[in-house]
Specification:
The chain has helices at about 1-10, 10-25, 40-60, 60-65, 75-100, 105-115, 130-150, 155-185, 190-210, 220-225, 235-250, 275-285, 290-305, 305-335; strands at about 260-265, 270. The protein is mainly α. It is globular and about 85 Å long. The structure holds fe (ii) ion (2 copies). The site of one fe (ii) ion has 6 residues, from helix 5 and helix 8. InterPro entries: Aromatic_CoA_ox/epox, Ferritin-like, Ferritin-like_SF, PaaA, PaaA_PaaC.
Length: about 325
């Protein structure tokens, strides 16, 4: 980036002025754009966060994708197919946003499949029944909305703008999940049991999606100061619980937390503490499906090599053709003159 190189060659005074400009932009709630100077820490934090987010979208296609060929009706298949495809699109927007910061998409993919970069812990849990598809839409996409709506006001322009598009699709995801569960709850006892079982399995992992408690979240303070993040993990978790409890009542399922109750004084629900050691374990690679998810992603990447090679060869051919055409035109103009 030219401005940042300018800052380095311009000495401390210039760097300081750029830093002041950056701080003022953040203070005024204006956006930082790719052409703007930004502190290295800001750039690195954003690349890490956006890459993890992109990886989560792509890995997140797997747990539900397993049900596309086994969906119980054409309608459910079409909905699920559209949803999983949306997640691929979210991944693409986000990898593109990371590229505006100087990251290389091939390098990010490499980091993911070598286990050097993380993705959301939630996608390391299995989806044994079709009710899981509904509960993922309701809880996981619901949690994603809680997380991502404030990110539409994130200080980095390309990230914020990609979130606007993504959030519109996430609300469809959440609704299709809830509607599927409503349908199952109107069905047989076995279907209702299936829904309750999926709710029991996904509730705590969904609460963990918001990350560790605030006191144990080392990157949060900087992200909040830079207005990359607008709310703390615990605050977002609270919002999710408050949003979900009435939906559970309407659906007719119980949430597996004996401590869950409305606190009149606080105007929020009280709820139990997730098992943070489980989150640590899953994040560090020891969840029920970590190995399977990464292996699958690696295989897809390797099997897709021919597509990337063909696209690169095609682009090179087109570039050569237009260079030849340009050259011919130049010669023609030369002889005409
Ligand atoms: Fe998504
Ligand atoms: Fe989604």
């Amino acid at each position: 980036m030219t401005t940042s190189q300018g800052a380095q060659s311009g000495g401390d005074g210039a760097e300081q002025r750029l830093q002041e400009q950056f701080d003022a932009t953040i203070a005024k709630d204006q956006r930082i754009e790719p052409r703007d100077w930004m502190p290295e820490g800001y750039r690195k934090t954003l690349i890490r966060q956006i890459a993890q987010h992109a990886h989560s979208e792509i890995i997140g296609m797997q747990p539900e994708g397993e049900w596309i060929t086994r969906a119980p009706s054409l309608r459910r298949k079409a909905i699920l197919f559209a949803k999983v495809q949306d997640e691929a699109g979210h991944g693409l927007y986000l990898y593109s946003a990371a590229e505006t910061l100087g990251a290389d998409r091939a390098d990010l993919t490499e980091r993911l499949i070598e286990g050097r970069q993380k993705y959301s812990s939630i996608f390391n849990y299995p989806t044994p029944t079709f009710a899981d598809v509904g509960v993922i839409g309701w809880f996981v996409d619901g949690a994603a909305i809680c997380n991502q709506v404030p990110l539409c006001r994130s200080s980095y322009g390309p990230y914020a703008r990609s979130m606007v598009r993504i959030c519109k699709e996430e609300s469809f995801h959440q609704r299709q999940g809830y509607e599927l569960l409503m349908t199952m709850m109107r069905g047989t006892d076995a279907q209702r049991e299936m829904v309750q079982d999926a709710v029991n399995r996904w509730w705590w992992p969904s609460l963990m999606m918001f990350g560790p408690p605030d006191g144990d979240s080392p990157n949060s303070a900087a992200s909040m100061a830079w207005k990359i993040k607008r709310h703390s993990n615990d605050e977002l978790r609270r919002r999710f619980v408050d949003m979900t409890v009435p939906q559970a009542e309407k659906l007719g399922v119980t949430l597996p937390d004996p401590e869950l109750r409305w606190n009149e004084e606080r105007g929020h629900h009280d709820f139990g503490t997730p098992d943070w050691s489980e989150l640590k374990r899953v994040i560090s690679g020891d969840g029920p499906c970590n190995e399977q998810r990464v292996a699958r992603r690696r295989a897809a990447h390797e099997e897709g090599a021919w597509v990337r090679e063909a696209a690169t060869a095609h682009a090179a051919k087109r570039a050569a053709r237009s260079a030849r055409a340009q050259e011919a035109q130049n010669t023609q103009e030369g002889t005409a003159a």
